[in-house]
Automatic annotation (TrEMBL):
Record protein name field: Multicopper oxidase family protein
Keywords: Metal-binding, Oxidoreductase
InterPro entries linked: Cu-oxidase-like_N, Cu-oxidase_2nd, Cu-oxidase_C, Cu-oxidase_fam, Cu_oxidase_Cu_BS, Cupredoxin, TAT_signal
Keyword Oxidoreductase: yes
Organism, scientific name: Oceanospirillum sediminis
Segments forming domain Plastocyanin-like: 50-154, 175-268, 357-456
Pfam family, one: Cu-oxidase_3
Molecular-function annotations in GO: copper ion binding; oxidoreductase activity
GO annotations of cellular component type: outer membrane-bounded periplasmic space
Length: 457
């Protein structure tokens, strides 16, 4: 049997024009329906056409397998660490018990090389989530340990096409050799951007869908650094969900920014046969390609409406009794503490005048806030810096009430994107006991201070 690459070469089809992600399979057949085996392991991948790059992968493949689960149904993931360093896996955006949150020391001991840890939980919300290690993140995520986690609605929703796009820029030169994943002068600013833009590990992949079909694109920003300002050309698209959570009423996509860690689900109906639709991101006024979609011959009905998504069962905060807590995010370039081994750990960012003190088995710092189980809170976030910060809370889902001092149509999210000097008011019920990470998802910001945790008890 020919492999796909050899087949394409024999048939004279240019690889660049037909390259599509080869999702690897992780599912195993057992007593529970959603049962997966997942490894983290070094491997190599052809990210830049014609060149091999040594990468870190889930199950040996870029892109990582999409883990698909169903709302309200148990999932079991047998994770084996085949890296030569410890790791943990975090399920970003899922409201699951602390024991399964995948944060070293706060929720579990690190999974050592060669060890297996079984993650088992039942996702309460449907939507587009993702997974990644929560150790040595600049390297582990930067070199490829990022994957999509899709929770299908308890009652199936009727799209014809359901596509995952995980967006990442790789820190590679033109020959696929690694460049620095972090540089202090960038870590102290917007973060160190990668050079090679991909969706599902491919630069500008091209998809073909039948004319008139209803398409759901699940876009996840799994990059360490980049904020993507997305837009769609060639058709009208609707914003249907933000960070996994359906919006109360879908609205047309004009431009929408997703910071690192954030997701956007968009719905669209494919135009007439032969027409082309392009997903782009904007840097200044220039558009850069993310992925393209060409309408092929009609195969089913020509649809004119998108199905609607049920709202997730996120607890409703009681705004009358909610306690307000202020968080100020600031820049501080001066300190450079040195540990016993003589390594310096630059600190550039602070939460409420505090930088993360670091964490190890015997050294767990105090939480940035102590919350009472079952109470409602309003987090008032204030970014006193010139850079974007996607502020992420584990184990809970925010209801955003205000952005930059103005009321917004409330929406659910696990990550609030603060722009330059931006502000936000986000409410939630502290209904999930445990110590929950609370950090900027620009990985270098997190690693240089912008990280803490809240304790719910
Ligand atoms: Cu994507 Cu602490 O998480
Ligand atoms: Cu998370
Ligand atoms: Cu940040």
């Amino acid at each position: 049997m020919l492999d796909r690459r050899a087949f394409l070469q024999l048939s004279g089809i240019s690889l660049a024009s037909v390259a599509l992600p080869q999702w690897s399979l992780a599912q195993v057949k057992t007593d529970i329906e959603y049962h997966y085996k997942l490894t983290a392991e070094p491997s190599s991948a052809e990210l830049i056409p014609g060149f091999q790059t040594s990468v870190l992968t889930f199950n040996g493949n870029i892109p990582a397998p999409v883990i698909r689960a169903r709302q309200g149904k148990p999932v079991r993931i047998e994770f084996t660490n085949k890296l030569n360093e410890p790791t943990t896996i975090h399920w970003h955006g899922l409201r699951i018990p602390i024991e399964m949150d995948g944060v070293p020391f706060l929720s579990q001991p690190p999974v050592m090389p060669g060890e297996t840890f079984v993650y088992e939980f039942t996702p309460p919300d449907a939507g587009t989530f993702w997974y990644h290690p929560h150790m040595n993140s600049t390297v582990q995520l930067g070199k490829g340990l990022v994957g999509a986690f899709v929770v299908d609605e308890a009652e199936p929703v009727d799209f014809d096409i359901d596509e995952v796009l995980i967006l990442k820029h790789w820190h590679l030169d033109k020959k696929g050799e690694w460049k620095a994943l972090t540089r202090p002068r960038y870590a102290a600013r917007m973060g160190t951007p990668g050079e090679w833009g991909t969706a599902n590990g491919i630069h500008d992949p091209q998809f073909s869908y039948p004319a008139g079909s209803r398409v759901r694109l699940r876009i996840a920003n799994v990059d360490n650094t980049m904020t993507y300002n997305l837009r769609m050309k060639g058709t009208d698209a609707q914003v249907i969900a933000i960070d996994g959570n359906p919006v109360s009423s879908p609205y047309p996509l004009d431009q929408h920014k997703i910071g690192p860690g954030m997701r956007l689900d968009i719905g669209l109906i494919m135009p007439d046969e032969g027409q082309h639709v392009a997903l782009e991101y904007l840097l200044g006024k220039f558009g850069f390609p993310v992925a393209g979609f060409t309408a092929t011959a009609q195969t089913g009905d020509i649809h004119s409406e998108l199905p609607s998504l049920p709202i997730n069962p996120v607890p409703v905060p009681d705004l009358d009794t909610a306690e307000t807590i202020n968080f100020v995010f600031e820049w501080e370039g001066a300190i450079s503490p040195t540990d016993e081994a003589g390594n310096t750990h630059p600190v550039f960012w602070l939460i409420n005048r505090r930088a993360w003190e670091g964490m190890s088995k015997d050294n767990i710092p105090e939480p940035v806030a102590d919350l009472t189980l079952g109470h409602s809170y309003i987090f008032e976030l204030r970014n006193n810096t010139q850079y974007h910060h996607p502020i992420h809370l584990h184990g809970h889902t925010f209801l955003v009430l205000e952005m930059d001092g103005k009321p917004v149509t409330p929406f659910h999210t696990d990550t609030v994107l603060l722009g330059k000097n931006g502000r936000a008011k986000a409410a939630f019920v502290a209904d999930n006991p445990g110590s929950w990470m609370y950090h900027c998802h620009v990985i270098e910001h997190m690693k240089t201070g912008l990280m803490g945790y809240v304790r719910v008890s």
